[in-house]
Specification:
Low-confidence stretches: none
Helix content: 25-40%
Number of helices: 16
Largest sheet: 3 strands, antiparallel
Radius of gyration: 26 Å
Number of strands: 19
Structural class: alpha+beta
Mean pLDDT: 92
Distance between the termini: 69 Å
Length: 542
């Protein structure tokens, strides 16, 4: 009989960051009860931290979706009861020990990493699945048997085996972000795609410590308005899900969603080390309008011309800074005036900072973080992971501050137009010089966004929505002046770097209904660039 070993409630395995910037491993129980003493999670990858955050949130939903801070039964059926429950936790400044200890003690036996019948986050039925080594389990390597890393982060025993603590962390990561390389064992089964978290454009709120981060993301109402169903985390199931590639209904409660088993997994061990695992496809559900998911951005699409809009989770683009997504996350309409489905976490924070509920200080700054995975070749393997953050006054989310959000959207649109103008200038200069260098426009745009990135973040951070009209006008004028200096400086650099050949220029033939010849030269391109910038400014970025 296999030995029962490594209980996640008692053993140290969750990596946390202390205020002195040291990293420590703690148990799940410690992570919750001492969350106020830790700055943040500190896993090996940002994506691993998201998977860990969702596990901790699932426990909190299972507890405080049912009882109050004193352990008394509570029903969160409306905004008043949900806000009262959340505010009592926030004012306490830490998670109450009694309700959490009682809940974890009750389900203690469901948190054994190794157990003959109920291993945590695993099922024995996965034994027939695709076999992988620990190098594939380790997300920093993600190395399959037929794709070796030339310069791996681990070597020798570090590649071939993992400690129990490491394996437990990567178990959560693989369940959420696994690629599509595994083959099904059964015939005629549907494809679940990448792990659920890998399909999302993940977004979360971030506090001053782990307690605040967890509580800000403890969304007690769907989209800040609708009550959840009874909480059903996976460890509370009488019989764990074990079927391969099973399509399920969209969860109606957060604990079930946050513990969704996208993969059937079973760890293999030898001499107190994890050496590999077996994997099958697990549970999945329809992505369209899956608004039970509160931690993703969305994109809209239409199946037919006059049919209703459908919203799908939208992955983040690794080449785009977070602030460039502001119109599709924090406003009701995108730059193209297409209705936006605002992420549930944003709606929840908007509700919390409503002055009627006295949950968050109206002058408080809020920080949002996006995290994602970039896959290659139809999600067959992971190519990159990334994280970005953005801070601004929480009151910007107020409905009464809609004008400020519209102004920010206009400024971002103008940045995009300036970038396009620089791209056109780069193309014209390359044509004038007769150069065959590819992607000159793309490189010029990237350079512009690189230079304007920090200034824009600082400007957004500085905005106080309670400014009077004069202060508002002064801030907008100062930003415009800074923006135009950056775009003109880069435009002048591109002209200077084009060289004497581009200055002299050449005749270019343009084909259309009839062939036309025209001179393309750096001075002409520079004048056209300046004209485009003036027209953009005249239109105000609209």
């Amino acid at each position: 009989m296999k030995k029962i070993e490594f209980n996640l409630l008692e053993e140290p395995w969750i990596r946390v960051l202390r205020p002195d910037c040291t990293v420590e491993e703690v148990s799940l129980r410690q992570a919750l009860l001492q969350a106020q003493f830790y700055s943040d999670l500190a896993g090996e990858l940002p994506t691993q931290d998201v998977a860990m955050l969702r596990l901790l949130l699932a426990v909190l939903h299972a507890v405080f979706g049912r009882v109050d801070i004193h352990g008394q039964p509570v029903e969160l059926k409306n905004t008043t009861s949900a806000i009262q429950q959340w505010r009592s936790l926030w004012q306490l400044g830490h998670f109450p020990e009694g309700p959490i200890q009682e809940y974890l003690d009750r389900w203690h036996d469901r948190f054994w990493l190794f157990h003959p019948e109920r291993p945590f986050w695993q099922v024995p039925e996965a034994e027939i699945g695709t076999e992988y080594t620990s190098a594939k389990l380790n997300g920093e390597l993600s190395e399959s048997g037929n794709k070796l890393r030339l310069f791996p982060a681990y070597a020798r025993a570090g590649k071939t085996e993992l400690s129990y603590a490491q394996a437990a962390r990567w178990l959560l990561y693989i369940n959420g972000f696994d690629d599509t390389s595994a083959k099904p064992k059964g015939k005629g089964l549907p494809s679940p795609g990448a792990g659920w978290l890998g399909k999302l454009g993940l977004i979360q709120a971030v506090g001053n410590n782990l307690f605040e981060t967890l509580l800000l993301n403890l969304i007690l109402l769907q989209d800040g308005s609708k009550a959840w169903g009874p909480e059903k985390p996976c460890w509370e199931l009488d019989v764990p899900h074990s079927g391969e590639r099973v399509e399920v209904s969209q969860p109606d409660n957060q604990a079930e969603l946050l513990t969704l088993q996208s993969r059937r997994l079973l760890l293999h061990r030898s001499d107190d080390r994890v050496t590999g695992y077996a994997l099958l496809g697990g549970d999945f559900f329809e992505r369209a309008n899956a608004f039970c998911e509160q931690m993703t951005t969305w994109r809209s699409t239409q199946e037919k011309k006059n049919s209703p809009l459908i919203y799908l989770p939208r992955r983040h683009d690794t080449s785009r800074q977070f602030w460039r997504e502001f119109p599709t996350i924090f406003t009701e309409k995108s730059n193209n005036n297409i209705p936006v489905h605002i992420p549930g976490i944003v709606r929840w924070i908007t509700l919390l900072q409503n002055h009627n509920y006295h949950c968050l200080d109206s002058k408080a700054l809020i920080r949002f973080r996006i995290t994602g995975v970039e896959y290659g070749d139809k999600d067959f393997f992971v190519t990159d992971t990334f994280r970005d953050e953005l801070s601004f006054h929480a009151s910007l989310l107020n409905e009464v501050k809609k004008n400020w959000r519209d102004q920010i959207k206009v400024k971002i649109r103008r940045c995009e137009q300036f970038a396009d103008a620089l791209g056109k200038l780069a193309d014209d200069l390359a044509l004038a010089a007769g150069a065959g260098e590819p992607d000159v426009a793309k490189k010029a745009k990237e350079q512009f966004y690189f230079r304007i990135d920090q200034p824009f973040r600082q400007w957004l951070y500085s905005i106080d929505p309670d400014w009077d009209e004069d202060e508002t006008d002064a801030s907008l004028a100062a930003w415009h002046e800074q923006e135009r200096k950056i775009v003109y400086a880069l435009g002048n650099e591109l002209v200077e770097e084009a060289g004497p050949t581009a200055f002299v220029g050449r005749l270019v033939k343009k084909s259309g209904n009839k062939e036309i010849s025209y001179r393309c030269a750096a001075p002409i391109a520079s004048n056209q660039f300046a004209y485009r910038i003036r027209m953009i400014e005249k239109k105000g970025g609209s």
